[in-house]
Amino acid sequence: MTRVVAQGTFDILHPGHVHYLQDAADMGDELHVIVARSVNVTHKEPPVVPDEQRREMVGALKPVDEAHLGHSEDIFIPIERIEPDIIALGYDQHHDDEQLEAALSARGIDCDICRASPLETEAADRVLSTGRIIDRILDERS
Ligand SMILES: Cc1cc2nc3c(=O)[nH]c(=O)nc-3n(C[C@H](O)[C@H](O)[C@H](O)COP(=O)(O)O)c2cc1C
Ligand SMILES: Nc1ncnc2c1ncn2[C@@H]1O[C@H](COP(=O)(O)OP(=O)(O)OP(=O)(O)O)[C@@H](O)[C@H]1O
C-alpha cells in the first residue's frame, strides 16, 4: 500500500487541478490531499473560496481518497498523521525539493518527493489556472 500526499490551494477548480491529482494518485494506491489554509497562502493573492469549502470540493474529486484541511501553524503535523510514502509536488510549486526533504528528515519523516507533470493547452477556451479564471472574470464581468 503506497500512500501519496498532494497539496495546494485549490481555490477555483479547473482541469489542471484534476490532472495534478490524477498524476499524484497514479504514483500510489491511496491519495490524501492537504488543502492550504488561507492564512498560509502568502505567496499570491489569498483564496476567494473559504477553507472548508475548498476541502469539500477537492474531497469530491474522483482521484482523491481523502482531503484534509492543512494545519494553520505547522505544515508537518498533517504529514506526521497521514504518514505518506510519497509527497507529490505540483509542477510549478515554489517549494525547493531539497529544502523540503531536509525539513522532513529533521522531523523524522521518511518519504520520497516527486514532481507531477503540467497540463498544458493551446486551446483558447481552456483556462488552466485559478489566477487566469479570476482575471477573465474581472475582464469580462466588470
Ligand atoms: C509537504 C507539504 C505540506 C503542507 N501542509 C500544509 C498545511 O498543513 N497547512 C497549510 O496551510 N499549508 C500546507 N502546505 C503549504 C501549502 O499547500 C502551500 O501554500 C502550497 O504550496 C500552495 O501551493 P499552490 O500555490 O500551488 O496552491 C504544505 C506544503 C507542503 C509541500
Ligand atoms: N495546468 C496545470 N497543470 C498541472 N497542475 C496544475 C495546473 N494548474 C495547477 N496545478 C497544480 O495544482 C496544485 C494547486 O494549484 P493552485 O491551487 O495554486 O492552482 P493554480 O491554478 O496554479 O493557481 P494560481 O493561478 O492562483 O497560481 C498545484 O500543485 C499546481 O501545480
Describe what this molecule looks like in 3D.
With 142 residues, this protein is α/β, with parallel strands linked by helices. The chain has a single domain (3-141), classed as Rossmann fold, CATH 3.40.50.620. Helix content is 35%, strand content 17%. The chain has a five-stranded parallel sheet with strand order 3-2-1-4-5, sandwiched between helices. The radius of gyration is 15 Å and the shape is globular. 25% of the residues are buried. Residues 7-9, 34, 36-37, 40-41, 70-71, 75, 78-79, 87, 90, 93, 95, 100 line the site of flavin mononucleotide.
Annotate the secondary structure layout.
Blueprint: E1 3-8, H1 15-25, E2 30-35, H2 51-59, E3 66-69, H3 76-82, E4 86-89, H4 97-106, E5 112-115, H5 130-141
Parallel strand pairs: 1-2, 1-4, 2-3, 4-5
Bound molecules: flavin mononucleotide (FMN) and adenosine-5'-triphosphate.
Family: Belongs to the archaeal FAD synthase family.
GO molecular function: ATP binding; FMN adenylyltransferase activity
Function: Catalyzes the transfer of the AMP portion of ATP to flavin mononucleotide (FMN) to produce flavin adenine dinucleotide (FAD) coenzyme.
